[in-house]
């Protein structure tokens, strides 16, 4: 016992010097080793998917037809069968218990499925909102670009404008040439 306590004391004290080792720090670049759990684990997504499948089935006409068939067979069996094979007599207490049990499980499963659908709808709505914001930003950008192009085109010389300016210059030159005296043209050269 004394050796164990002595060993604990030597481990508890921080070693000194060049041979001292650092206390063990978990590495952040590696996952932690799995811990043992006392309770079983389940995948919440798998449970949610199962509840959605059950809720979808409970909301179909097929379920209503099958439930009606089961109840009719139950009642007819317990009324028309011999007393020896009947398992639920006239007030049908066991049938009421079974229907209550089915309803007590169906309601939370349907609510769970609705909550999951609400979560999906919320995510889709957020994605749609972001997409709409991007579309509006793109539309505003393109509107500004088109306005800038229109303003730039207003300053650009078009072919018709250049043609009319050249025609005006040709007319001016012709009028100047015709208005000058003939002798003066020779002196200018």
TrEMBL record:
The chain crosses the membrane at residues 63-80, 92-112. Pfam families: DUF1003 (PF06210). Signal peptide: none annotated. Keywords: Membrane, Transmembrane, Transmembrane helix. The keyword Disulfide bond does not apply. Residues 1-40 are annotated as: Disordered. Residues 1-14 have a biased composition (Basic and acidic residues). InterPro entries: DUF1003. This is DUF1003 domain-containing protein. It comes from Streptomyces griseoluteus. The lineage of its organism: Bacteria, Bacillati, Actinomycetota, Actinomycetes, Kitasatosporales.
């Amino acid at each position: 016992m004394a050796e164990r306590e002595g060993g604990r004391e030597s481990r508890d004290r921080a070693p000194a010097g060049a041979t001292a080792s650092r206390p063990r720090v978990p590495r952040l670049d590696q996952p932690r080793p799995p811990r043992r759990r006392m309770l079983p684990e389940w995948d919440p997504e798998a449970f949610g998917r199962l509840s959605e499948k059950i809720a979808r089935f409970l909301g179909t006409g097929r379920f209503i037809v099958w439930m009606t068939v089961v109840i009719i067979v139950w009642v007819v069996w317990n009324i028309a069968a011999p007393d020896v094979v009947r398992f639920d007599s006239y007030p049908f207490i066991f049938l009421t218990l079974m229907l209550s049990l089915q309803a007590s499980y169906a309601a939370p499963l349907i609510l769970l499925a609705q909550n999951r659908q609400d979560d999906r709808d919320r995510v889709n709505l957020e994605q749609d909102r972001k997409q709409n914001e991007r579309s509006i930003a793109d539309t505003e950008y393109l509107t500004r670009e088109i306005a800038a192009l229109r303003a730039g085109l207003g300053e650009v010389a078009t072919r018709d404008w250049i043609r009319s300016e050249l025609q005006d210059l040709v007319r001016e030159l012709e009028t100047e040439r015709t208005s000058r005296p003939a002798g003066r043209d020779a002196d200018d050269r």
